[in-house]
Amino acid sequence: xxxxxxxxxxxxxxxxxxxxxxxxxxxxxxxxxxxxxxxxxxxxxxxxxxxxxxxxxxxxxxxxxxxxxxxxxxxxxxxxxxxxxxxxxxxxxxxxxxxxxxxxxxxxxxxxxxxxxxxxxxxxxxxxxxxxxxxxxxxxxxxxxxxxxxxxxxxxxxxxxxxxxxxxxxxxxxxxxxxxxxxxxxxxxxxxxxxxxxxxxxxxxxxxxxxxxxxxxxxxxxxxxxxxxxxxxxxxxxxxxxxxxxxxxxxxxxxxxxxxxxxxxxxxxxxxxxxxxxxxxxxxxxxxxxxxxxxxxxxxxxxxxxxxxxxxxxxxxxx
Amino acid sequence: xxxxxxxxxxxxxxxxxxxxxxxxxxxxxxxxxxxxxxxxxxxxxxxxxxxxxxxxxxxxxxxxxxxxxxxxxxxxxxxxxxxxxxxxxxxxxxxxxxxxxxxxxxxxxxxxxxxxxxxxxxxxxxxxxxxxxxxxxxxxxxxxxxxxxxxxxxxxxxxxxxxxxxxxxxxxxxxxxxxxxxxxxxxxxxxxx
Lengths: 319, 193
Fold this sequence. Notes:
The complex is a heterodimer of chains A (319) and B (193). Chain A has helices spanning 11-17, 61-70, 93-108, 115-129, 137-144, 170-176, 190-199, 203-224, 231-245, 252-263, 289-295; strands at 2-4, 19-26, 30-36, 42-45, 49-52, 76-82, 147-152, 159-163, 178-182, 268-271, 279-283, 300-301, 306-307. With 319 residues, chain A is of the alpha+beta class. In chain A, α2 (61-70) crosses α4 (115-129) and α8 (203-224) runs antiparallel to α9. In chain A, 51% of the residues are buried. The model of chain A has no long low-confidence stretch (mean pLDDT 92). In chain B, α5 runs parallel beside α6. Chain B has 193 residues and is α/β, with parallel strands linked by helices. In chain B, 58% of the residues lie in helices and 12% in strands. Chain B has one domain: Glucose-6-phosphate isomerase like protein, domain 1 (Rossmann fold). Chains A and B meet through loops of A and α2 of B.
């Protein structure tokens, strides 16, 4: 779940100027099961079931590329189970799938990789191999977990993940102000991200993205001082800047939802992820929660918690 | 004699020209990932291919050494004579490689088979076992690859029907790989994990 700075992790911007986001992992998990397969071929289970001779015939591109990357050509069952739809939610679920697959497939071979390495490899698969127009914040958020400032250093300088250090009670107070709704509008993020990437080379948008990145540092500093209440304003400013940089981020239906939420007492709000649909995050003082819930009665509310850890091996059976 | 020399070199040249750089790239990619992730690489073969297997394990093991650098985990299954003769004598020659793999191989490891015909029973049996253990199998082969070609994740087939030419080409491929890794690893200097 990203709060501010999203979009500044796109290569078109951060490779030149450097990017930064503040995000947290939340308790919406992707579970991956890998099992030795007696038949010796490959079985992949998700919304579909594939049974194929070897990895090259696997149609699920993340499973295929993760198997190729980790060097398992066949002989396994791979199952993914997700708490949220794995596409179009803005929660970074496809990156969480990739990170989880890599972790599971390496663990299956007795290889323990550090979280940042898993994130790096997941980004290579999604962006490098599959050519998705993504940034790298989701892979690092899913791999490392917790509440972080994630910095994308310019000219191939890599990624730096710094946990936010906050006075006791700060993130709890922030959590009490957040409501999450599913807009029901699942969207393909590719077109929007492409627009945002192109925006990274036009003057006005670049200026907006610089300020978007600065908000990430401001949020770190505010939370570091124990000031959770100002996050609503930061989210609102971030959302405005992102729309200024790439007008496709929102659409009429989203603007209408946002207007209803603000009128009912929300201080700030944003779509998670690239925009266009998916999950809507709102910062609402607790006294206004019921009014905002009523105002967005047609949407499904999704309770969530912050998660202090990223990808982990839940069970490893030694054979 | 001179005609013979020219004839052999011509055939060697024609065979070498059939080697696909794309496949060599894919082959080396598997070895590189294995090196990066600390996986074990096994090499095996019979006759002249046995000597190439030992040669490759020696070259890739030694010529990639650098101060404080990670090292290649590579070994040939041709070099333990007491074990080879014992397995051969007690269990049959077709089992000499598969039985060694049963001691050692793990999921994701890489088995390199070197075989002119691609049909040697002991090679095929080792490949079957490696596949059943979720390992990767790659081959340097000749003729049309034989049955081994079907069992490989990546097969480089030297298009020739002459064992001498095929084995020469395999040794050249070895030296291409060794030179490539020597240069690449010295540049990247991966540290020990």
